[in-house]
Amino acid sequence: MILTGPEITSASKDGLLRISPFIPTQVNPNSYNVRLGGTLLIYTDQVLDTHRPNPTRRTEIGDDGHVLQPGELYLGHTLEEVGSDLFVPLLFGRSSVGRLGLFVEITAPIGDIGFHGQWTLMLTPTRPVRVYAGMKIGQIMFFVSEGAIDLYEGKYQAASGPQPSSYWRDLDATAVTA
């Protein structure tokens, strides 16, 4: 079951989900619009390595926006902090942004119950596109969970700003690679 707009508003007021800041005009019929934060991370190595941290370059989106280039992956973030200990959040790009050829979330739209923080966005343009801090970039839907809940306690908890991959932290040192 998915929460409707009025239920998102009610759950936010009741503390069952957190959206900060909560702006009533960003509530949709069954989702909440999130805005693009002001910081982007760009990986600086040509080849990204899953077994180690990858260096990034940080850039701030100025008043004139920032032009995203095809063939580049930009890690952005939501301006809002979003999370819930009860509902399962899913983040998708807004259709009007997708119609500009901008992928907002590549492979990981589902959030964990218990995560609270700014969401990292994986921005990938199909052609040059100028983005602005504060623009509506995506929408989060909330689904009702069923069964026992184990709250998220992972490495991205309380994220502030874009977070590069920490995949390497999950590697099992005893695992054999084929």
Automatic annotation (TrEMBL):
The gene is dcd. GO terms for molecular function: dCTP deaminase activity. Keywords: Hydrolase, Nucleotide metabolism. This is Deoxycytidine triphosphate deaminase. The keyword Hydrolase applies. Its EC number is 3.5.4.13. InterPro entries: dCTP_deaminase, dUTPase-like_sf, dUTPase_trimeric. It is an enzyme of class 3 (hydrolase). One of its GO terms (biological process) is nucleobase-containing small molecule interconversion. SUPFAM superfamilies: dUTPase-like. It comes from the Bacteria. The keyword Cell membrane does not apply. It comes from Streptomyces subrutilus. Signal peptide: none annotated.
